[in-house]
Amino acid sequence: MSAENVDLVRKAIEAWNQREPDLWRRFGSPEIEWMPAGPAALERAVYRGYDEVASGVAATFETWGVFKLHESELRDHGDSVLWLGRVEMRGRTSGLELDQEYAVHSVVRDGKITKIHTFLSWREGLDAAGLTN
Fold first, then answer.
1. Structural domain of 18
2. How many domains, the chain?
3. Do 41 and 64 touch, CB atoms closer than 8 A?
4. Torsion-angle region of residue 10: left (phi > 0), alpha (psi -120 to 50) or beta?
5. Residue 83 is assigned to a structural domain of this protein
6. Is 133 part of any domain?
7. Model confidence pTM above 0.85
8. Rounded CA separation 99/87 (Å)
């Protein structure tokens, strides 16, 4: 099942990069929980369920004219997947630009993502996935 989980997370990240408006309903479970990192956490620290997550994503895309994830590697951990790469961001109004490490730790159950926690460093993502001492 874990190869399918890796594929699911990769497709969800591709949908994010394409700004697919309904990506949470397509890839996430109804009880999905999203904990965005740093500048993506615009309104709150945790979004729960389709409606809250969709609202948070819409606010993020409205604020950031560019918000693209560039994959370096994916680590398969059975019921969770750790995506490691870089984030490229540019503020829609401010023009502020960021290009830095980024990690996405996703938990998958029954073919749907139930939890997504993002981090502004690989170290934080590795810690969250229980992969560091």
1. 2-128
2. 1
3. no
4. alpha
5. yes
6. no
7. yes
8. 6
